[in-house]
UniProtKB/TrEMBL annotation:
Protein name: Phosphoglycerate kinase
Binding, substrate: 21-23, 36, 59-62, 118, 151
Catalytic reaction list: (2R)-3-phosphoglycerate + ATP = (2R)-3-phospho-glyceroyl phosphate + ADP
Residues the entry annotates as binding ATP: 202, 324, 353-356
Length: 397
């Protein structure tokens, strides 16, 4: 990475404003999965141990520019206190007097968590005045919020116009290094596994990876738009009618690039979109009217698994079926298992966040892959070859 890193900076006596992604699930003031907070600890502890004062900025949920108590970061500050050995203060706002007083009250070697930046509508507009107010809290900016780095928002990007040096935190650096190395310098065979509901979300990724990978495995709801492009029957399965032509073009493009595109050879179909519906397994030409495909079938799971196990680099984004329902989760778990075996065989295996990250956790295999990204949207945009605003705006080395 050619951007300034947290480790390059002398932090003693400095106030560091750090954007983190503390967008964790909270119910009735209790934090569910605190993974995102824990992932920021290496950067947080580094600043504290180096004698800096740390001001943390984050968003939580989508309060749409209003102060809504259910989206307060106060419980997060309380939770962070249980994970670090220094004092954690909380500021009831991220700008203005309340923020300033909270920052002043903290000493070097202590932390201040400021209230949700999205309580102000200016945040998502990347408003220069708001960015400047956030910048006034410190001497150095650090972005460690990979999951928000695809957003050109004030606390992610705009702030760097007013606060330099702007450096990458350890989590951001780790995320980028995994993605960058795998895409630009992959050990081969390099396999991309793409699933999820919509072709439209993955078009950019397919187009970018088609010149880089050896194999693209396609599963999930988007399969059936590709089926349609090949003239196969799809019954009531998910279809993006306006993407059928494009799906056909992508299949052609893969062929001319010598990229192996694997689509499911069988599917598990159900009568209705519900857990206890009647189901059966059918071949790729066997999806009848009145049935919808909701998971890849066992033969596909085996074929996909074999391809993944033999790979040396694998990136996975998107479930193979409606994995939230047990009846349609087998294909996704088979891919999760194959990812784990590939890792044991020496492959670099990356989970691109979002639903695939939930699936690998549900399978209990999150420690058996090389990297689970904390940012679904951000890693997808990175894989599309798009420059992320939260990274582009950091100081060059
Ligand atoms: P995405 O957000 O595009 O990654 O899509 C994830 C969602 O796709 C999950 O909620 C899955 O339940 C859903 N999904 C995966 N396969 C299918 C399918 N065959 N039919 C309908 N939904 C699906």
């Amino acid at each position: 990475m050619t951007k300034l890193s947290l480790k390059d900076l002398d932090l003693k006596g400095k106030t560091v404003v750090m954007r983190v992604d503390f967008n964790v699930p909270i119910k009735d003031g209790v934090i569910g999965d605190d993974n995102r907070i824990r992932q920021a600890l290496p950067s947080i502890n580094h600043v504290i141990e180096a004698g800096g004062k740390l001001v943390l900025l984050s968003h939580l949920g989508r309060p749409k520019g209003e102060r809504k108590p259910e989206f307060s970061l106060k419980p997060v500050a309380g939770h962070l206190q249980s994970l670090v050995s220094c004092n954690v203060h909380f500021g009831e706002d991220c700008i203005g007097d309340q923020a300033r007083k909270a920052v002043e009250a903290a000493k070097a070697g202590e932390i201040v968590v400021l209230e949700n930046v999205r309580f102000h509508p200016e945040e998502t507009k990347n408003d220069p005045g708001f960015s400047k107010q956030l910048a006034e809290h410190g001497d150095i900016f650090v972005n460690d919020a990979f999951g928000s780095s695809h957003r050109a928002h004030s606390s992610v990007a705009g702030i760097t116009e007013h606060l330099q040096p702007a450096a990458a935190g350890y989590l951001l650096q780790k995320e980028i290094e995994y993605l960058q190395n795998s895409v630009e310098n992959p050990k081969r065979p390099f396999v991309a596994v793409l699933g999820g509901a919509k072709v439209s979300d993955k078009i950019g990724v397919i187009e970018n990876l088609i010149t880089k990978v050896n194999t693209i495995i396609i599963g999930g709801g988007m399969t059936y738009t590709f089926y349609k492009a090949q003239g196969l029957p799809i019954g009531n399965s998910l279809l993006e009618e306006d993407k059928v032509e494009l799906a056909g073009t992508l299949l052609e493009k893969a062929k001319s690039n010598n990229v192996n595109i694997m689509l499911p050879v069988d599917s598990i179909v159900g009568r209705e979109f519900k857990e206890d519906t009647e189901t059966k397994t059918v071949a790729q030409d066997g999806i009848e009217d009145g049935w919808m495909a909701m998971d890849i079938g066992p033969k596909s799971a085996e074929l996909f698994g074999d391809e993944i196990k033999d790979a040396k680099t694998v990136i996975w984004n998107g479930p193979m079926g409606v994995f939230e329902m047990d009846a349609f989760a087998k294909g996704t778990f088979a891919v999760a298992g194959a990812m784990s075996t590939a890792t044991e065989n020496g492959a670099i295996t990356i989970i691109g966040g979002g639903d695939s990250a939930s699936a690998i956790k549900k399978a209990g295999l999150e420690d058996k892959v090389s990297h689970v990204s904390t940012g679904g949207g951000a890693s997808l945009e990175y894989l599309e070859g798009i420059e992320l605003p939260g990274i582009a705006s950091l100081t060059d080395k």
